[in-house]
What we know:
single chain, 209 residues, Rossmann fold, Arc Repressor Mutant, subunit A, 10 helices, 51% helix
Amino acid sequence: MAISLGIxxxxxxxxxxxxxxxxxxxxxxxxxxxxxxxxxxDNFSDIDVLLLDISLPKMAGNDSIPLFKNLCPDLKxxxxxxxxxxxxxxKAIQNGADGYILKKTHPQKILEAIQQVRDGGAPITxxxxxQVFSFLKTAPGKGxxxxxxxxxxxxxxxxxxxxxxxxxxxxxxFISIQTVRNHxxxxxxxxxxxxKAQAVAKALNEKLV
Length: 209
């Protein structure tokens, strides 16, 4: 079944180019698109993935993430924006974004990000990841591991923050997918979170990775 998408983007030309890109492949289907958060919320219908800009006419995309997820708890949200500053990135993740992609990303990579987030990954443009980790390196001190994460759990949590899916993590660590899932469940329990996005936000906030 095709992955259904919604788009919230105020620049009409870029919005139309996204619709054209996604509609060119049978694996994806644009269910609706709007130029503002308010329009999207007023006309919302369930979708699999939302492509959401940050700089919008009224309510910022960052602030609207919880509202969209309240309407559709299983919704995956990818920020698709020009904003590269660490504060915008961290705010989006803290508010529940599942991925963060820059608009200048190659179209094929945008499609891959949609598939990746649908499969449980947390796609992040490499430049964005570097910005975040550079920002965190300048912050004072390493966080205290109060959750008592094991070295393997920290290793997996680090890979999650870098946007890798469960399958890729298993390949990188030469362990089974089920073993990775077991570790992720333990990470969720120890951090008291319920999703990869929340785990990433807590890891970055508390400097666990």
